[in-house]
Amino acid sequence: MSEADSHTDYETRWAIDPAAAALMGTDELRQHFLIETLFVPGRIALTYTHYDRLVVGGATPLGEPLRLAAIAPTGTPGFLDRRELIAVNVGGPGTVSVDGARFAAGPRDMVYAGMGASEVLFASDSPATPARFYLLSAPAHAAIPARLIRSTEAKRLDLGSHETGNQRSIFQFVHPEGARTCQLVVGMTTFAPGSMWNTMPPHVHDRRSEAYLYFDLPPAARVFHLMGEPDETRHLVVANEQAVLSPGWSIHAGVGTASYAFIWAMAGDNVDYTDVDPVAIAELR
Fold it and tell me: Which CATH fold would you assign to the domain 152-283?
């Protein structure tokens, strides 16, 4: 873990191919694909990945605002010189300031900061109930203005059924009729009472990597996240407010032991939600 300034830490995750992942035990899988600590009081914690150069992290401001600092892996003087960023608030009320423009973000609201933004500050309304900003960043090719994306503005899709245990609502925060980005695609999934399965049957999208943040999970509960190639599956046991890195070759599905929600984010060659390769349940091994 390296320090970029007095409040920012980062680590690097190298890309793992499916043949190597198939040989890994529990500890190795967790080391390479699970981000266990995202929200550190008073700090910004970042994970720079070699999956489409996604950066996944968390900012937990207390009494003083936290500034998003450049880190060595980006190779640029400023963090957003060649990148874009989405910050999702999963904590108490807070604000994100982008070059002086202040955006008040309540729980489950998102703030977008585009390429070229020179100063991004994260703040909590109250240190007693701090904001927890889940951070997602990818390389960008154009400067798009900063904006607040409220949860009520998301495009909602209702999928699944109670009979299959996957009755869920998908909220697309980035879509053609709403917020615009270069390549970041971010959304949230919630579940109807009694449904625990997400993204089942699973799918693969080789053209995009993905990251999952599981949250609103009781402390003693867990999500069993399925990953790996369809005929060589593996799993991770995930606690509340932990994130999973999902390479383009991997399925992604999971089941919780209690109610939960998750935020999913993708980056890659396109932003087409329908560009997936479905996997039948009978094909899984």
Answer: Jelly Rolls (2.60.120)
